[in-house]
Amino acid sequence: MLFWHLGGSLFLGRWVFRDPAMDLRVLALGAVLPDLIDKPIGSILFTDYFDTG
Length: 53
Prior knowledge:
Layout: H1 2-17, H2 24-45, H3 47-50
């Protein structure tokens, strides 16, 4: 899922804004940041629901 979010966001960002000087690092961080925040919080708060062990 990481590469799906990165690839889709980078493609759409480049296509919509059409600015070759655009900083893609900020766009990539914005695409991945919700996953980086959500995964640890979800694993802590919902361990009873999603525990497979």
